[in-house]
Protein 1
Amino acid sequence: MIRDSDFDDLAHKSGEWLRGTGPESDIVISSRIRLARNLADFPFIRRCSDEDRISIERTIRAKMDSIDEWREVRYIDLEQLSEIDRQFLVERQLISREIADAEGSRAVAIDPREQYSVMINEEDHLRIQVMHSGLDLKSAWQSIDELDDKLEGAILYAFHPECGYLTACPTNVGTGLRVSVMLHLPALVITRQIDKVFRSMQRINVTVRGLYGEGSQYTGDFYQVSNQITLGHREQDLVALVGDDVVPRIIEYERKARDFLVKQGQQDLHDDVSRALGILSTAKKISSEETMHYLSKVRMGVNLGLIEDVPVGTINKLFIHTQPAHLQKLQGRLLGSSDRNVERATYLQCHLSGKLSDGELN
Amino acid sequence: MKCQYCEKPATFHITELTEPDGPQVMHLCEEHARGFLQKEATTPTASIAGALAKQLNLGQTKQELAELDQKECPVCGISFFEFRNTGRLGCPFDYTHFSEDLIPLLTNIHDSVVHIGKRPRRAAAADSHAELIQLRREMEEAVEREDYERASEIRDALHRIEEAGSTEQNASGEEE
Ligand SMILES: [Zn+2]
Ligand SMILES: [Zn+2]
């Protein structure tokens, strides 16, 4: 592994999972799987002394260093990192907010293509995660299964013949597996069917979470679907529950709603998404909530063919790169919130304005 | 409106659509909202509290629960009370020590108590690892009360176990 604390290069590119290339990527942003694992011979994190945490970090790092295929993997000591750099990794979805805000010895190992990362000393000693673009859970499961085998070859996990992989929180015990699919569902929101769709799914062991902006004015239209239980089912079955059963049904509803919108009010819809693109590419200052709101509309416009020349990968990237720590990394300095709003507008303009044809401006 | 977790204004309002008690709205600042979205689906403490509350309804008396709260893991020292409050266990041995107490909880959360998925190829001998955890804790406690003689005794014992463990691991590694 490469020990690293300088990742300015990351700010200028984006992870593969953002490319918008995987299956169903007009609706599914990303497929993520994580596994929770603990070492057999240490207490769980909350009962660890500072020395325990240091030993755990050292033990795992040494074992990871011995994995041949990991020569290119970056290893970042999070304890030494500035707050802004930790925030950057959170926005990047490479580490969790919990580990960013925690104290004591902790670290993350990141694959150069950002398809997987392994957090050390999060809520569990190890949190392995794999992220793929679009609805791609089966291959994500394969990757993480292999990663887990590789680490297990070097580390002795806490495992109980009946309870399975032991975790600090009993909600993760057994498989330690959490499957999460991030969906973009603007048409279900516009047609006010979203609550109905999710209510119909309440009793099938999945959790759905939505993100709304201030009041009803700004909506990002993003929803995350995850498995709720981790014990008593095979990993492949939990993956299939989310990936083959629940998510395809939601996708079908969203497609129907999009068709309906296109047929019902092509002109209104075209007007709406074009205005959104207009605002994003001409505003002089813009908050991140507003950005998310309009990017969501533009993303739908691109996927419905109403906006041309803007690749969906660019839109996906803008969602991440317009967040506070990314803007500050790109600028190479700390910025207050109003400076960020100006910087964000400049950044959006530079990535979108060239794409505006005269017709769309009028 | 202020963020539920800090002093900043709450600009994101996140609705949990599938909470058992109906939709729940959280009011968060930008930073906490992003963190929250990346976090686990359900907040574990809340779901554990919910499951434990159900358990109480299902016949455990207040007195029984009070006795359970006092119960401590001999390895890491966590009490059931502490677990109930934080939603986090203290060490792998807790699943053995509190096994009976956790069964209703696991049933409530997962509708199951038996793992049928993946298994590691190398199984840890649970007891020797529990002993390691326990000895490390006892050593720290000895240092704290400045009983250095006891601390160094434990240190020697630890070294013996760790060495035995590492040769055992090497041996199993060579077999592969
Ligand atoms: Zn906050
Ligand atoms: Zn314990």
Protein 2
Amino acid sequence: MRPWRWLVAVLVATWLLPAAARATDRDGRIRLWHAWRGEEEAALAELLESWDGPTVEVLAVPYDALSSKLGSAIPFGEGPDIFVDSHERLGEYHRRELVADVGDAFEDGAYVGEAVDAVTIDGARFGVPLSMKSLALYVNDDLVAVVPGDLEGIAALAETLPEGVVALAYEANNAYAHAAILHACGGRLLNDDDSFGFVGPAAETSIDVVLDLLDAGVVPREADGALVTNLFRSGKAAFAMSGPWLAADLATPEGDAVRYHVEPLPLLARTRGRLQPLLTVESAMLSPSGAARPEVRRFAAFLASSAAAARRAERARAVTARTDTPSADPIVRAFAAQGRAAVPMSTRPAMRAAWEPANKALRKILRGDAPVTEALVEAEHRFAMVMRPPPPARSPTILLVVIGGALMFGAVVLVQRARTRAFREQVRRSIPAWLWVAHAVFVVGVLVVLPLLVGTATSLFGGPPGDVHYVGAANFVDILTARGGPLLASGSFWLTLLVTVLWTVVNVALHVGLGLAFGILLARPVLRMRAMYRVLLIIPWAVPNYVTALAWKGMFHRQFGAVTGATMALGDWLGVTIEPIAWFSRFSTAFTANVATNAWLGFPFMMVVTVAALGSVPKDVLEAAEVDGASRWQRFRHVTLPMIGPSLVPAVMLGAIWTFNMFNVVFLVSGGDPDGTTDILVSEAYRWAFTRDAQYGYAAAYAVLIFVLLSGITRGLDRIGAAAKAKVGP
Amino acid sequence: MVEIRLRAVSKRFGDTVVLDGIDACFPDRSFVVLVGKSGCGKSTLLRCIAGLEEVTEGGIEFGGRDVTRLAPRDRDVAMVFQSYALYPHMTVRRNLAFGLELRKEKRAVIDARVAEVAKLLEIEHLLDRHPRALSGGQRQRVAMGRAIVRRPAVFMFDEPLSNLDPTLRNTVRVDIRRMHDDLGATTIYVTHDQVEAMTLADVLVVLDRGVVQQIGAPIDVYRNPANRFVAGFVGSPAMNFLDGRVVDSTVELAGGVRVPLPEGTPAVAAGKTVVVGIRPHDVRRDPDGTVAFVVELVETLGSHVHVHGRVGDAVFVAAFEGHTGPKRGETLSLVVDRLHLFDPETGVALR
Ligand SMILES: Nc1ncnc2c1ncn2[C@@H]1O[C@H](COP(=O)(O)OP(=O)(O)O)[C@@H](O)[C@H]1O
Ligand SMILES: [Mg+2]
């Protein structure tokens, strides 16, 4: 048996197979990538049956993965010829030359102007509009007889509604929804010159409007999508500002949950402007190689044709951008009308960096944590900081010299040693051993070492995707100097590090404390139904942690959360009025909410470890202590704890690492609120990579720093553990 | 330094009766040995007296003070465990000092007491080691030191020698007895080894299945066992038991052999069937002997020989002084100097 032969064969095969596949699909096939699901996907399948051109190979890609897959496939000639994506990504695709002019696939005069604008960059069309998505106004027909013409009218209706029913449900603290009001005030989220738009008089007016609505109780506080859906579906909202997905959520097998209709958003009387939602145009886009093939362009035109649009409208309630294909479905018609009165989302890459500051400022203001102007100006600064030019390109000579020198030195040492007979002999004898570990080395290399090296290398680069250059240690310098700002300002590495350390220490302390307490209770032999308690106590650990995190986030909701409910009930019982706490508006409370969630998630692990460790403490040693005169607490403190300590150290170490990197809880519960202060290093790194203009190099530098810190912590704890173990011995 | 009184102490684990109505009184400063077969409840009784187990029924008094519901630390007792149960994470010094520290003794007092005990037990050079760096005998000494250092009213030992090798066992046994005599506390000592029990005890308590069989000075228990169990358990080699019947002033064994009842044997109704107990040391070789003993195996111990063989059909062991024994297959005539009679049904000694 020669294991390496198999290895080589497998490697060669994996290399050759895709090449073979590549060779075959050059013969005229059309490759289509899309992110459609459910009815939309079914509609596509139906359409393909009536397509008379070359075979179409369809690949469904998750929406979140689509853009990165395109970016890594198309430049190497591997990607699709045609793909369906939201138009707002076009700017980025255009910059990276992943898309080309669609040419004759675009039928002039067939689409509404907003959709045409959406796919146009510098006068050329880079997509064929397929469908439009935007918010519109849902009206509960049981609660509303006559729909007022303006937002103020809707607010006025609030007085007449039954107790417990809000007038208008929408995600007030989400910039996407707020944009509709901003547009009515003449503002934009991003200006045409790539400067931050959500600042200045228009933005302030739009916020005044919302503050008035919140103060008058017209709109629910801190509403997220799920809350909007729930309120409207249960008849607790007269109006909702939401997208087509709400219609899908309202449909039940027995018909709609409430009697409603949809119409375009109303006017804003204060500015005499119309509420205009942001518009997303789903478009067929062509890769450069696809655009060059006439049959691909013909297929794009086919997907966008009137017949295809009608099919999608019928099956999936897709709202076409065509002017010549009106739908019979009143909801689709309403959304189509809204599409003509909407503002296409900016295609500029800078748009991606605008969301986070806009959302942060909006949340902060609506919670009443900061004056309007101040928060908006701060948001503008934040935007500018993200959009600052990448560090200048550096010559990689120094790095290459260092790496080259190291390699050279290694080679010299190796050659020197290879010249000694003993070493050659040793190598010859160890070859069979190497063959046995080859697969493990290979797997660890590919799965652990390689990503680590790539990540480290990435941290030395800067610039937007598709246009990266070597910047040396500039990312690290930037991070460690807090980008030139005050070292402990919000969002600075040092503040985040401080918060992360605090977060880790508090959590691990709680995990160990709770784990020990419950572990000891569970280990008591007199406890009845021990097995049941054990299962109950392990449940928090068994539930996927993002589910728990979302549940806890819901519990901390200011208006509808269980924690609020409990404190109010307690207040009623005590006869005092307790103001509902806005958990995420102060660092202390937001941090507490995060910690509570994570303590809940983390203690079962420590508990299980404790139970196991307690089993290793001999009973008679404890009895000896009892006879020696130790109380229960003294026995725990002086005997049990020192004896189980060493077995807890590895668990504490793991717990510390997990907590240090506990992205889910921070991201989902507080989301960094208020103002990014509860963010920890990983969630900060995530934001740089995925919400701030894809600054991968910068994010990778964060990751490298996290790695270095964790290695340090691990080593430190290891020492402590070894010392403790040496004392107790076997 | 107390008298210990047990009043009808019973202990049950669920439905299992482990101790059944134990009454006893151990005088102040006495060395009490609880002896019995493995599983008879010795450790349980000891733990009840120490307070590590709660008694199910009955009461325990230390010097007239009812301690039945008191925690161990309020009873002023110290215990040496079979496994020694040293604190593995503490040095020998801290192991010794721990009980005093818990009692908030002054540092100087603690140091002095630890030094004194370490000297007494000759473990001064071990004070800064951890238990895992000690041999079995050294651990045993530390465990004893931990008990002594507190100067308790009652010492307890649960089979403290069972993990030592035989030669060490003998020296430590002597040390324990000497220590008891020096310290003057009441000692309760558990063992399953009747040699240890006989050599150490002032008061011997023989237990079987959770019931006290006999309490008394070792020599009384040896001379006048209360029943067949005690008779068989105490003494080495064990007593021989033969079936017999009382005829006139003799007892007739199976096979028709008649053994005259020696002086001092209690009068028993003639014709009664009995179990005859004869200790191996209570027979003599004598040409006039009436008992024919067929030799099968001879064990030479130096000062004694133990001879295994048969009397009639029954297995019999005899012990003789000197170092030369009879040959295999020889038939010896024996005279019985002393014998015990037991009721065949109840096993109670007939006196
Ligand atoms: N915690 C317990 N639960 C149930 N049975 C026990 C327990 N402890 C001891 N026993 C039983 O009580 C009997 C006496 O045990 P023990 O006192 O340890 O005997 P020994 O005389 O050998 O020291 C044994 O049969 C043992 O199985
Ligand atoms: Mg025992």
Protein 3
Amino acid sequence: MNETSEKRQIAWVIDLNKCIGCQTCSVACKVLWTREESEKAQWWCSVNTLPGKGTPKDWEGMGGGFDDAMAPKTGHQPTPADFGGGFDFNHEEVFFGGSAGKVHLEPQAPREGRWAMNWDEDQGAGEWPNSYYFYMPRMCNHCSKPACAEACPSGAMYKNDDGLVVRDEEICSGSRFCMEACPYKKIYFNYERQVAQHCIGCFPRIEKGVAPACVRQCPGRAMFTGWLSEDGPVRDLVMKHKVALPLHGEYGTSPNVYYVPPLSPHPLNEDMSINAEKPRIPPEELEAMFGPEVHDALSRLQAEMDKVREGGSSELMKTLIAYKWQELLGPFTEDPANIIATG
Amino acid sequence: MKVERMDNEAADLKDPASAVWSGLTAENISLAPVPLAAQPTEYIRVSRADQPYGETAEASATAVGSGDQLYVRLEWQDDERPNGEFADAAAVILGSGDNIATLGSDDTPLKLWYWADDRDGALNLSSSGPGVVLKNSGVSVSAAASRDDNRWAVVLSGPAKEVSDSQMGVAIWNGSNDERAGLAAVSGWLSLDMEAS
Ligand code: SF4
Ligand code: SF4
């Protein structure tokens, strides 16, 4: 492994104003990487409605990462129940049982305590007419200071030359300290193979110039990828316009997935007049996720949007709209259909 | 510790509950936690500073040679069956050097004949520090366990020629305390009197 900090770093930007919660990214990842029976409950890319419990359930309270002095913080290992899912369904009964229209597709697990990725879809928060929610895709952040790799006693995890945090499954001894130490709780355990598993950043695609499946498949044009150190939308949104922020930067791992925070309409007063004083999504809730920088980012987004509405032109808005789909892919524009699989 | 020879009882020796074991005198062994300072990552040292591990302080061991195999029967008290992520486990440690308390080191890796309650059979591991293990291939080892009255009895067996310096050690992981990798209780070296008949 090359230890220099000069290595290039791949990054993602996810525009939460454009994500429609369609789960195409999570399914694109699922069908590519976690189709084994023992991987049934794994969602390396998950999309949850926020406010909500997230995936795994209540992960933000599970610890890990680093404190202000950069000492590791004790974390909790999420359990299969916290992740939920991996259900068997009553396909036989619904499709071949002769009771069409009477039974519906349902997990074959006790109703009580059922839980899975995005189980609280579209519940959100707030009271009508001011209810609100937004969607948040999450995958491994391929952190620049990966708490997971630093916790691993076996030396099985490392940052590859593209800045992706990967694991050598031959060396992983299944000790699961990575799962405790990752503050984002994005590592799963494969109980059959006795190894931990997480998003590999589609490294075999990256090496062939193909964008990660989540980015390439996103119909909302909500996900961007690219090198953080090279010109392109990712670098512009993070460094120049400063509208893309890390999730829970205070966890201390220097994550490389950035989010454009969601703007929202104004709430309504009781007499149904518009309360122009504030947005419907409480800014303090966004601050708890993205830090105090979120307020400036939201103002900048709003100002640029207003500029365009008044007939002006905005480089930031053009970048976020991504008129050309290829712009989302950064340098990884190869068509996977043109890649010949070997070995 | 005397290694009795029993050349015709191989089948029975694999069973920790077999009567062949009850006639033999077991040796009492004391164990101590792998030192916190020796844990290989800062995360483990920080997170386990106030979370005791490796508290299985005693076990007993009996050893028998049969054909070219060594059979070691371990027994210890374990009050609670794990219901979390990690299984109860134990290992016979083989090798030499003064790094048994840390389950070996880079320079002097140790061999572990490793049994865990959640897998069939045994693993033959090479350990070069707490939690730094690799699977050894080529040498076949086996394990069988029984549990009675909150006590585990486990027989681990493998080729007697794997023993170096006529000594062995023992490690125990308490699954209900989430013990795995370097979170273990380990004995010192016990000398094996292999010539006994
Ligand atoms: S595919 Fe795109 S729009 Fe759909 S959930 Fe994922 S990020 Fe959001
Ligand atoms: S998100 Fe978690 S698993 Fe991914 S690199 Fe960061 S600490 Fe490691």
Protein 4
Amino acid sequence: MAESSKRGDGIEYATKAELKQAQRQVAMVFDLNKCLGCQTCVVACKTLWTRDEGMEYMWWATVNTKPGKGTPRDWEQMGGGFEDGVPRAGQLPTRRDFGDAWEFNHEEVFFGGKGKDAHLKPSGEPDWGPNWDEDQGGGQYPNSFYFYLPRICNHCTNPACLEACPRNAIYKREEDGIVLISEDRCKGYRFCMEACPYKKIYFNHARQMSQKCIFCFPRVEQGVAPACARQCPGRLRFVGYLDDEDGPIYKLVNKWKVALPLHPEYGTQPNIYYVPPISPPRFDASGNLDESKPRIPTEYLRYLFGDKVDGALATLQAEMAKTKAGGKSELLDTLIVYEWKNLFGPFTQDPAELEPRKA
Amino acid sequence: MQCIRVPTARDRLLDPMASEWSGVAGEAIALGATPLANQPSEYVKASRNEDDVGKVRNVMVQTAHDGNEIFIRLSWEDAQKNVEVTETNMFPDACGVLMPLNGDDAPIDEMGSQGAPVNAWYWRAGAEDEAHNMVAHGLGTTRPAASATIEARSVWGHGAWSVVFARALAGEPEAAVDLAPGRSVRIGFAVWEGSNGERAGIKSFSKEWRELALQP
Ligand code: HEM
Ligand code: SF4
Ligand code: SF4
């Protein structure tokens, strides 16, 4: 089935299998050991894609402290995805759950003539925001811990959103597997929002349609990496094709098996993979380091990334030990990213060097 | 179901509360849940219980024409009006009318089929009354057919919605069922209860076509 037929006439009669079909799959790997929680990716995405009316509360890219409730609040308790291959009921996250877009008293502070008596503050009494529980984390001092979890739509191989839409408005692009919502077809029914277990779909109230991360496809088509990846100062967002055996994605996911999908039990087969965080040892009761126990409980990482996380952590530690002993490690060289552009596979084009598109 | 010919002014017929409507005999139509088996989404099938689908079980239907236009008035009890959609989990109340576009064999419980399209008129509660003319060729295939215009007016009061649809009798090939004095067409009705999260295929509908006879 050609790309054009997925977008155009006849899409309403396509089978879900046809809509899910893709020749290749773009993917990302996020190395959680390097994320600073600086939110540059989040703002890069916001600035590029979600500035219009109706998009105020949208953050297609988010970074939250883990452990934590995340964005939207408690999304991991909202259902969706699949159980034994059967769709599982999910909740509709509300704008409040996402943290909404706070209104501020800019007018009063800047033009109200109140001098130093007026202070910038949100109107009302917000009780949640996209990063409300930032840096709280878990554990007890001196074994408290946290790490950052960046998230975007996973451009799943078996997307729950696509499966849920009664109008076939959601499809995977034939050439790269990017999951898109057709603006022509979407009527804002929001079954996708219920069904996505990662809660990465937003409802645009102004346009009465659902919207989500588009993997910066207009950039990708020009060989430019998605904005969140290119802007990341932590250099941890790898981009490429899953089947590119020379690229870092294939090496990390398939060869070294150190990059794992988030909540694989949701059954959607995500295409965003995570290198799990390695942590220093725990302190025991007498205040000494207990080298046998990591500060971040492995149980918690299993909850996030499944049982394969043990193998991934073991491989990372073995390779680190190898380099400590003076050896060389292809895995660590890949993760270190000596050359910034090596993050981006075939998507190294500098957008500033492209001809601006005619409007 | 008789669609009587009346000399009444159009702005009166367009007003759901106009006293003239009390002189137009109506028919109470029983509505039932759309069958889960027909929902074109494995997710919807797996996540809903048919007993909870289609909260509105009755709609009163009155129709009249003036030789140029047809007016269809639907009214149903609804203690709570759902108009605004300011949260992601809010859905507006809505109603619709369905007619086979050309020929009588279109299945009502699947919104027509590829070979037998249906013409749907759709109103939903909002800041302004908006009505849409649509064509469907089976489940999940509704498309706007904006070449034909539908007007609608609505009033909510005393725990009930009253909605009047108006359209020129003359139809348009591929887009709008052709009506004329003396002609008979098949017709069906649907209501979406916003507070019950009803939208798309989640609604109540008249399980069989009715015959609508336009008085010559
Ligand atoms: C007389 C009965 C019916 C009427 C008047 C009717 C009317 C409509 C209208 C106007 C829409 C578009 C709603 C929108 O734009 O928000 C729609 C959508 C839909 N209807 Fe029906 N319908 C009827 C019966 C049924 C039945 C029995 C089913 C079976 C499950 C069904 C399944 C659907 C589905 C899945 C959608 C959403 C997909 C789409 O937008 O095409 N309908 N219907
Ligand atoms: S993460 Fe959610 S929205 Fe994105 S493809 Fe998967 S199911 Fe769909
Ligand atoms: S830009 Fe990079 S380092 Fe900063 S929060 Fe995003 S993923 Fe983490």
